[in-house]
UniProtKB/TrEMBL annotation:
This is Termination factor Rho. Coiled coil: none annotated. It comes from Pseudomonas promysalinigenes. Residues 1-126 are annotated as: Disordered. Residues 46-56 have a biased composition (Gly residues). Residues 1-19, 62-83, 97-109 have a biased composition (Basic and acidic residues). Residues 84-96 have a biased composition (Polar residues). The lineage of its organism: Bacteria, Pseudomonadati, Pseudomonadota, Gammaproteobacteria, Pseudomonadales.
Amino acid sequence: MPRGDKSKYTEKQKRKAEQIEQSYEQRGVPEDEAQARAWATVNKQSGGGEKAGGSGRTTSPGEKKSARSDSAKRAAKTREGHPRTSTTSLQSQTKESLLKEARSKDIKGRSSMNKAQLVEALRKFG
């Protein structure tokens, strides 16, 4: 499929891209930029052309939903606090990240602590 060929897209996807493109143009975005943004949005939301062929991947909408859910769960897991082995690594973090880690470990009184107190509490906790 040559670049720019939209034959693999469903009619619904084409209508959606057209509506998004018009919306961008009404906001003053140049036509070519509006079209690029519109198709990027359609691709992001639906995973590209839905008709058979193309990339060779056969992913059903259910599998896509499951993959997105799994990806979101993995991303959330990486945002959780990580155990630290040294006080030095705690001291190099920002106060905001220390607060987030203290929140995930449910350390009481964390909101009124300064950075040094947060480091000490996290060191003791875990």
